[in-house]
Amino acid sequence: MFSLEFSDDALLQLKKMDNSSVKRITSALSKSCGNPFHFFERLVGRDESKLRVGDYRILVRTIPEEKKIFVIGIGHRKNIYKRA
């Protein structure tokens, strides 16, 4: 079982969202902790992976040696790749 760790930026982005979106995102992240390699899709040319939740994308960096999922950013699919 992997543990979740959030960046300050990701926490700030979560606080700005409405409650229903936050619940969907946290639910998807908790499901992915069992087997993150099944849920996350690797981004081409980058070290990060993404998880799709509706119109939102969650950018993460998986650290298998430490069994950790580090959430880098959360945002709408139009803007998330420009910011990260």
Characterization of the model:
- The chain is α+β, with helices and mostly antiparallel strands and 84 residues long.
- It has one domain (3-83): YaeB-like fold, CATH 3.30.2310.
- 37% of the residues lie in helices and 33% in strands.
- It contains four helices and five strands.
- It has a five-stranded mixed β-sheet.
- A hairpin with a 4-residue loop joins strand 4 (56-63) and strand 5 (68-76).
Number of continuous helical runs:
4
Biggest sheet: strand arrangement: 1-5-4-3-2
**Roughly what is the average pLDDT, rounded to an integer?**
92
**Total beta strand runs:** 5
Largest sheet: 5 strands, mixed
Q: What is the level-2 CATH architecture name? A: 2-Layer Sandwich
Proportion of residues in extended strands = 25-35%
Please identify the top-level CATH class.
Alpha Beta
CATH superfamily: RelE-like
What string gives the helices and strands in order?
EHHHEEEEH
Q: Which spans of ≥5 residues are poorly predicted at pLDDT below 50?
A: none
**Into which percent range does the helicity of residues fall?**
25-40%
What's the shape? globular
What is the alpha-carbon Rg in Å? 12 Å
What name is given to the CATH topology? YaeB-like fold
Distance between the termini: 26 Å
The domain tally reads 1
Derived structural class: alpha+beta
